[in-house]
Amino acid sequence: MELKVAVLAGDGIGPEISAVGVDVMTAVCEKFGHKVSYEYAICGAHAIDEVGDPFPEDTFNKCMAADAVLFSAVGDPKFDNNPSAKVRPEQGLLAMRKKLGLFANIRPVQTFDCLVHKSPLKDELVKGADFICIRELTGGMYFGEKYQDDNKAYDTNAYTRPEIERILKVAYDYARKRNKHLTVVDKANVLASSRLWRKVAQEMAPNYPDVTTDFMYVDNAAMRMIQEPKFFDVMVTENTFGDILTDEGSCITGSMGLLPSASTGEHTPVFEPIHGSWPQAKGLNIANPLAQVLSVAMLFEYFDLKKEGELIRKAVDASLDQNVRTPEIQVAGGAKYGTKEVGAWLVDWIKKA
Ligand code: IPM
Ligand code: MN
After folding, report:
1. DSSP code of residue 116
2. pLDDT of residue 114
């Protein structure tokens, strides 16, 4: 297969983990005889500094021309502490989602047995937990009509039937490939937008008789996730609820630095770690590259290249088993591996596999 990848390394630790992702991608492509080429493009804070736009037209064009985008992270504290900044790095992320039509954000909550002890929850609750959250990504309050003056402000949580139908279809397709259990998360006891979600889901459910559909209010889902994370297989929800629940989901596993994600939709799909740009660690060679590397696995799997994805997952498992780990997950007395060293180890393992 021939793959054209747009690489958006972004800010903070982005460039360091991005380089590892690219190396792993190249090694896997060599192994399986795929041709891969990379187009690098700017985004986030450094794109604001360079051209005044966190998602410049040139970057958009490169994304559109690619088969997939490998994205790392955006953000810089100099914007966080400046409420009057006119443009922010995060706007680049939102622009990318909207312009590429990335309506489905797939965030797996997957545990690694050897890291279960890092979870704030009891081992027996976490061990074996494995679900995915499908978050609607281009609608709801993030993009609805907004208003703000000094005395009044609002954000509108608007959804149309086609927007709900297409994300539910993605969710049902995932549920079918997994354990056939879909939980639709909403707040239908209070919100009109949620009532439409529930109505549409109830209409669609009979088309998927092999899948068990249940409905849960978002407050209850937030509770259930920590009481019984193994209850869930696939959950689907609107943009804002999904933002909140996926942060909760990521810390259940105890290793937020290990979780990848995929955003898919109308145009080029984007693969990225769920963690942020960790500006304090920039250039220190301490960031964990595994979430980025697992995003490359998701990229391959998106193109149905299952063996390629599996090889990456095995390499990651092997590195963890052999304590080839960045500092935040290293065991006491374990050797010190930096971002680059973990990357080099993975590439070497893949070549020898
Ligand atoms: C995420 C992030 C973004 C979001 C921010 C950075 C705009 O928190 O991807 O979850 O709220 O969607
Ligand atoms: Mn978030």
Report:
1. G
2. 87
